[in-house]
């Protein structure tokens, strides 16, 4: 990779670790963008995403959903690959990601840990095997008090995996933020609950609750570094990759072959 790796959000919780992991992988860190007065450990602080995109072969992006549409345009224009970890995207943001992916390689994942991606694959298989009329699917997540979006991107990813397994669209069956007289649970609904507190790195449980048994699968991240090493792996994987919207499953070799 001639130009090296850039980081959007380089001074943030993830950005700081990403910079360390780029160096640990023996790759070149060109620098990143963040708030103008940010201190960056290694590489330069670029004035904006266009300048970073011009200098880097790939940008790892862990910022805020409000940046996504501008970053999509700048990276597509520069022909720079994009590893997108930011969560909380709107439908319009997601459309901008898909548009960029017609021109550049984009690896988008709500969670870059190998363990969560295995859980996502298992979730789809479990949902396909357990009748929706008997097994109520509930997704519970907990994160640190600073997290700004809910449910987490990973929780939504789990919801989509369950919905795929059941052959339905998540939007049609999602039950989020129950409060007050919300009525009885809908058959086939996929429920979400988000807890926030302390410095929890990220915990996700998918529960299938039937009348006579419960099955649950839980992932706990103890250190953000697990996301950072996965994202650097994804960034290196983009080298020479044709335009397209890829997932961490593609990077891990767990995705079904593309038709
Ligand atoms: N996919 C995955 O595996 C993971 C995804 N995430 C996601 O990554 C994102 C970031 O998380 P985290 O690192 O904890 O958050 P932080 O708030 O610690 O870091 C984000 C950084 O981006 C900066 N930033 C925000 N907007 C801009 C902008 N317009 N231009 C330049 N810099 C900007 C912030 O600056 P300022 O503080 O001034 O706003 C901050 O320094 C979240 O969406 C989170 O959900 C997190 C962990 C793993
Ligand atoms: O904001 C975080 O911290 C995390 N965000 C991601 C998400 O929304 O799923 C991944 C991880 O759980 C940490």
Please tag this protein with its features.
259 residues; alpha/beta; Rossmann fold; Dihydrodipicolinate Reductase, domain 2; 2 domains; 7-stranded parallel sheet; 5-stranded mixed sheet; 12 strands; 36% helix; 23% strand; binds NADPH dihydro-nicotinamide-adenine-dinucleotide phosphate; binds the ligand O=C(O)C1=N[C@H](C(=O)O)C[C@H](O)C1; amino-acid biosynthesis
Q: If you had to describe this structure to a student in words, what would you say it looks like?
A:
The active site is at 143 (proton donor/acceptor), 147 (proton donor). (S)-2,3,4,5-tetrahydrodipicolinate binds at residues 144, 153-154. Homotetramer. Its EC number is 1.17.1.8. It catalyses: (S)-2,3,4,5-tetrahydrodipicolinate + NADP(+) + H2O = (2S,4S)-4-hydroxy-2,3,4,5-tetrahydrodipicolinate + NADPH + H(+); (S)-2,3,4,5-tetrahydrodipicolinate + NAD(+) + H2O = (2S,4S)-4-hydroxy-2,3,4,5-tetrahydrodipicolinate + NADH + H(+). Helices cover 36% and strands 23% of the residues. The protein contains nine helices and twelve strands. It has 259 residues and is of the alpha/beta class. It starts with a strand and ends in a 7-residue tail after the last helix. The model has no long low-confidence stretch (mean pLDDT 97). The relative contact order is 0.16. Helix 2 packs parallel to helix 3, helix 3 (68-78) runs parallel beside helix 4 (91-100) and helix 5 (114-129) runs parallel beside helix 6. The chain has two domains: 5-112 and 224-252, 3-Layer(aba) Sandwich (Rossmann fold); 114-221, Dihydrodipicolinate Reductase, domain 2. It has helices at 13-24, 49-55, 68-78, 91-100, 114-129, 153-166, 170-173, 225-237, 248-252, and strands spanning 5-8, 29-33, 44-45, 58-61, 81-84, 105-108, 136-143, 174-176, 190-196, 202-209, 214-221, 244-246. The strands form two sheets. A seven-stranded parallel β-sheet has the order 3-2-1-4-5-6-12, with helices on both faces. The chain has a five-stranded mixed β-sheet with strand order 8-9-7-10-11.
């Amino acid at each position: 990779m001639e130009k090296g790796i850039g980081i959007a959000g380089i001074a943030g919780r993830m950005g700081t670790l990403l910079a360390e992991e780029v160096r640990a992988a023996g790759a070149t860190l060109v620098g990143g963008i963040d708030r103008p007065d940010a201190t960056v450990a290694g590489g330069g602080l670029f004035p904006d995403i266009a300048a970073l995109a011009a200098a880097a072969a790939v940008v790892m992006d862990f910022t805020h959903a409000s940046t996504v549409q501008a970053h999509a345009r700048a990276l597509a224009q520069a022909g720079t690959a994009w590893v997108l970890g930011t969560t909380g995207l709107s439908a319009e943001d997601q459309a901008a990601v898909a548009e960029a992916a017609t021109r550049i390689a984009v690896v988008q994942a709500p969670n870059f840990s190998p363990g969560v991606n295995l859980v996502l694959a298992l979730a789809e298989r479990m949902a396909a095997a357990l009748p929706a009329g008997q097994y109520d699917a509930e997704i519970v997540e907990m994160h640190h008090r600073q997290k700004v979006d809910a449910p987490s991107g990973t929780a939504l990813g789990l919801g989509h995996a369950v919905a795929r397994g059941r052959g339905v669209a998540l939007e049609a069956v999602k039950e989020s933020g129950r409060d007050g007289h919300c009525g009885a649970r809908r058959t086939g609904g996929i429920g979400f609950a988000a807890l926030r507190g302390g410095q929890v790195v990220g915990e996700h449980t998918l529960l299938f609750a039937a009348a006579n048994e419960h099955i649950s699968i839980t992932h706990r991240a103890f250190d953000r570094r697990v996301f950072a090493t996965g994202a650097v792996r994804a960034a290196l994987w983009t080298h020479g990759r044709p335009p397209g919207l890829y997932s961490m499953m593609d990077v891990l070799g767990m995705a079904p072959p593309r038709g």
